[in-house]
Amino acid sequence: QEKSCHLSAALLGEDSEISQDQLYELLKYAALGKCHNAAQPSWCRIYHQSHLAGVVVVVLHEMSQLHFYRFYLQFKHLRKVFRHRFTLAPSANFPVSLYGEGANLKPQNAPQGLTSTSSECIAKSSDLQCDPIIQRYGGKKPGLTSYTLTLEEQKENDYPIEGSPGCQGYISTECDQQRTDSSPLFGLDCEMCLTAKGNEVTRVSLVDARGQCLLNELVKPESTVLNYRTRFSGVTKKMLLPVKTRLSDIQTRLKKMLPHDAVLVGHSLNSDLQALEMIHPSVIDTSLLFARSEGRRFKLKFLAKAVLGKDIQCEQKVGHDPTEDARAALELAQFFIEQGPIKVAELNLEMLLTAEKLAEVSQNKAELQPQGCGFQEQLNEPPPLSKPCFLDCLQVTGQKPLLLGRQGLDSSGLCQSNLSTSNKQILQRALEDVPLSKFSIIQFSLGPEYLASHLHAGLHEKVRSKLTDMLTIYAGPFEENFCMKSVKKEFGRCGPIQSLTVVTETFQPYVCIQYEVLEAAQLAVESLNGAEVAGSCIKVQRPVTAAMLDCSVLIKELELDVENEGVIYVAGLKKSLTETDLKEEFGQLKDLETLFLPKDLQSGKHRNCCFLKFQKTQSAVDALEAINGWTMKGSELRSRNALAPGHLWRWIWQMNQSSGKQGKHIFYEKMEQLSNSEQDLRKKVKKLDHHIKKLYRSLQNNTLCVVLFPGVN
């Protein structure tokens, strides 16, 4: 069965905020795999990245989380299909790190009004024919045996060969040359010291094709040591004092460990075999494999970083780690064999090495620059090297990035000049071009007339006001001298309370309670309406305002939100309970995947509620039935389906903090007519959601699709 690529990111609550660097990390790994310093993201995991059909980033220009929740009902497709949702922490302009600063992305033949890049960004295939790798191996993708050194190549590069001068007494591994494309690879690396005899081995490492260490041994030299070369080898006199292993022991062990068709891989492997005084017929030398012109060679440290994205031989470590070096050489050979010469040539390693050296020179000059140097001298310095943008990395690997967007959107650095292009035209172009590209950025916009700062401020106030109303409930009527403590205790069992005040404008007292989470307010309405509290049979309801008329619809849609599948809310917990206690108590529930205990983001103290995420929706339904009425440490629990994903919960909390306690609420508000601009905006957003739906449905299976609400800052 073909493996499908999928993303795992089970984050709840506070973890649902990610930095733009983390998003960059995800996109880079999705697009580049292990090339160009791209590693699995630290906060989520992409499985079977090699099966990824492509990456599509939809940028909704200057729209933010605010727009998403103001027009939550209009974004019908977006909220039902996209399973993972995260708040982006405010930081520098994210699109710049994608496109690069001041990049001219408009090719000569681009249609008016559209910005796009495709094959113009890529080095032409004719240029690759001059690459030493293509000249040596050709354009086809051969098997493993094509990369092993011939006998002539071994002689030219000073490999020990049977019967050659200077190889008397050398031990043969007795492996034959009957290697095939499925022969096993082994990574080998040695560290040497200088003795009266010359270079002698002090440490040997051997790894198998999976990178597992088979041998990592210190070796006692036969002759007197003149220089331990600790800076490079990491071996000291003290380390070798108790060692009994001699070179002959290592030779015997290697002979036993290597099968008859073994292929040894190493970087300048001839030095290792000379020091081991061993002869082996089948070798791949990564210093020769990644060919350069005029006999030059790339260093292992550079190749590991540029090709595998791994840092080895770090300066803070004393000496090299031979196991690390052996594994790096092995993985480099595996990468070359798997990807083939063209893919490796497209990495453009020479360009990367030049850029790295220039960066080092620039850094050294900056460090050596004397304080108080003249302004004229600074003017004569070359401009600082800008950090390579994401698209640069893609172009170097030979991928064809596609950019489509409106013109005049200066803040993104995408394009210039007129605004004639519509979202519909961008969509049509995307439907044609996205299938031809491995990485696409599609930018839609509501247009400048809908992104004015005063409209943005008005939207913010409306969203804040509506969320506050949804978090607020009114309860009553109570007797004149009712017990406030009893009311607070009863309503506190539904969840954390932000504020509690008495409404004095009514004939009999009512209480206005503002909760910190939506689930608590909804639980209070569902469980305490018509109940007897503090000696009175009370009614529990939300404020009646124009904005709240669709509250029941919104609550239902939030409950059905794909992010809330299998997630339930539990209230009534004692604050003395720790996360460990709760995991122990709830551990008996079937298919429990994650437990999130909300905390006060200032004090760090946890609330009297938690969220439980289950692997299966039915298990969440069963847990709801089991938990309601469950007593834990003397406290009765209440639960319901979750309404607000973690990022919304965090946003609500921050909004409450910035706006302060609300105090008294006006029960009835004057009905307000929606302004024409907002009615138009709703239609625009609905159409935008339809565009995203159409684009999404056109994508191939195994495509990573990200919709970005970058905001204005």
TrEMBL record:
Residues 471-545, 566-644 form the RRM domain. It comes from the Eukaryota. CDD domains: REX1_like (cd06145), RRM1_NEFsp (cd12273). One of its GO terms (cellular component) is nucleus. PROSITE patterns: RRM. One of its GO terms (molecular function) is RNA binding. Keywords: Exonuclease, Hydrolase, Nuclease, RNA-binding. This is REXO5 exonuclease. The lineage of its organism: Eukaryota, Metazoa, Chordata, Craniata, Vertebrata. The gene is Rexo5.
